[in-house]
């Protein structure tokens, strides 16, 4: 089996674990989410961005095109979430004004999450084309992201009142989409310049998720100091990982 596809399959375990804990308990999830955000930030800062700037030196309007792709990736996910209403913090209040559209918003939001995990899988497959070291770093970050995805998929559906069967189906969809993305990323043939643009956009996705979704959720109902320490630990962990596998 292709290594990227195999690792993408493993992330399904993390997604399922996040979904299970969303139902059972959230008492310590803020620490895991804080750590996850740190891992994602470290991945982008220490591995992805240096790699894409090395792969592509083209400019547009006196600005590196990979930097433009990074911003476009950030904005694309932001606009998609505004439209679909996905990635609402799992612990946020759900006001009465939203209840009339809970079923539609909850399901559409969870389905939109399936779309971005497909892009996760593509990034995993493409990263192994650059190097095994980058692929492993991306896998570690996606693993932490997958946990958060499972948490939020189930939480959205609990709020909509349809979490029993639909939660299981959409958790399975997340797993299938990530594996399918990894398969596509592993076998598609693209140039280094195109690869760098996609990975730069993926970096924008990752930063958006870490800063606008995972960190606010981690701090929503818990003391922030311990959570901040968990985030710093995540950054340092990714620094050590990149430094030792690079």
Automatic annotation (TrEMBL):
Coiled-coil residue spans: none
Mode of membrane association: Multi-pass membrane protein
Any one annotated GO CC term: membrane
Keyword Membrane assigned: yes
Main location: membrane
Pfam families assigned: Zip
Cellular localisation: Membrane
GO molecular function, one term: metal ion transmembrane transporter activity
Annotated transmembrane regions: 29-49, 61-80, 100-119, 126-147, 167-190, 197-214, 226-245
Keywords: Membrane, Transmembrane, Transmembrane helix
Designated name of the protein: Unannotated protein
């Amino acid at each position: 089996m292709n290594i990227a596809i195999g690792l993408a399959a493993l992330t399904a375990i993390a997604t399922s674990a996040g979904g299970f804990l969303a139902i059972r308990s959230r008492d310590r999830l803020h620490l895991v989410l804080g750590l996850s955000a740190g891992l994602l930030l470290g991945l982008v800062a220490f591995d992805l961005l240096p790699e894409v700037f090395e792969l592509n030196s083209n400019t547009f309007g006196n600005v590196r095109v990979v930097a433009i792709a990074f911003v476009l990736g950030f904005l694309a996910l932001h606009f998609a979430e505004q439209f679909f209403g996905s990635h609402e913090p799992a612990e946020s209040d759900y006001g009465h004004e939203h209840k009339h559209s809970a079923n539609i918003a909850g399901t559409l939001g969870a389905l939109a999450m399936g779309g971005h995990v497909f892009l996760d899988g593509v990034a995993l497959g493409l990263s192994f084309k650059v190097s095994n070291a980058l692929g492993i770093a991306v896998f570690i970050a996606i693993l932490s992201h997958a946990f958060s995805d499972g948490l939020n998929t189930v939480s959205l559906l609990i709020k909509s009142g349809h979490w029993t069967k639909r939660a299981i189906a959409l958790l399975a969809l997340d797993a299938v989409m990530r594996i399918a993305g990894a398969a596509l990323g592993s076998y598609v043939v693209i140039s280094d310049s195109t690869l760098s643009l996609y990975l730069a956009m993926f970096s924008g996705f990752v930063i958006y998720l870490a800063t606008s979704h995972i960190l606010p959720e981690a701090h929503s109902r818990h003391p922030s100091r311990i959570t901040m320490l968990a985030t710093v630990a995540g950054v340092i962990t990714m620094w050590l990982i990149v430094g030792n596998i690079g």
